[in-house]
Amino acid sequence: MTLQQLKYIVALDEERHFARAAEVCMVTQPGLTIQLKNLEEEIGIKIFDRSKVPLTPTLAGTEIIQRAKKILREADDIRDFVINQKNTLEGELKLGVISTLSPYLIPLFIKQMRELAPKVHFIIKEASTYHLMRDLESGAIDVALMATPTGNANLIEHSVFSEPFVAYLNETHPKASESTYELQPTDRPELLLLQDEFCYNAQLLDICGIKDVKKIKEQFTYDIGSIETLKNLVRAGLGFAIIPQLSTANENHSELFKPFKDPKPVREISLVVTDSFSKKLLLEKMHEGIWNCLPEDLKKDFAFKKIRWNDSPYWIGKISGGK
Question: Residue limits of the HTH lysR-type domain (predicted)?
C-alpha cells in the first residue's frame, strides 16, 4: 500500500469515473486501473463496485477511503512540518568548532548571526577534530565547523572557504626579511605541534614533508594547546611554526608571518552535519555569516594546494591508539 494508491482511490471517490480520476491524478487510465487492482488484491477487499454507474464505493471501501483521506492529510502535515523545519530560523543549535579556528572566527561569526538569525540561540563548543566528529555522530552537537575532508561517510560536508597556512618566524630567522616563505630543511626539526590537535598536526607534517614525527627536535616537551602559545614560543626563539592565516588577522603590522609561495598550502573549512540535519535555511545563513567574516583576500581566487589530514599515517596512528 502506497500513498499514491491512496490518492488514486480518493480521486476515484470524488470523480466516480476512471477517466476523470486519471486526469486529476495526471496518470493514464490503465495505470490508475492497475494500481487500484493491485491495492484491492493486496488488502483482499473490493473498494469500488464497478457494476454500478456512476462508480460506487463498497461498504468497506467507504471506510477505507475515509481512512485514506486522514492518512493523506497527516502526510501533508508531515510535509509542511519538514518544510517549516528546513526554513525555520528559530530555536537552539549546538555548534562545535575546531580550536585552531574558534578564537579568530567565532567572535565575528556571532556578530553576523545576531543580524542574520537573531532568534536562534547558538551553543558553541570548542573541541578537537576527533571529538567533533564523535559528537556529530552521537548527536551531542548539530553542526561542526572544521577542516575537511573528513573521509567519514556518515557526515555531509558543506565547504565554506579555503584558509592558507602561513609560516611564523622569529626575528633572527634567515627568511625573516623576505616577503614569502619557502620551506627550509633546517626548519623541519624545529616544527612546533599542538597537543591533541591531530588533524592539524597531520597537515603541518604534510606541508613539511615529515614522515616520522620523531625527527622533530624535542629538547623540551611542550604541551601546547593554543596557537597563541605556539606563537609566543616562536617569538622567544624556541621553534618554527606553521599557523592558519586567520590567526594573524590582528597582526597586520607584524613581519613575523610569511605567506608561502604559490600554490599556497590551505585547509578546507566546512560546515559538517549528519544526514538527519534538517535546518537547511539556517545552514545557508551560517555559511553566509562565515563568508561575511572573512578578510577580502580570502574571498579572492588564488593558487592553492589542499592539505588533507584524514588519510595521514600520523592521524590514523593517533586515533587508532585510542585517543
Answer: 1-58
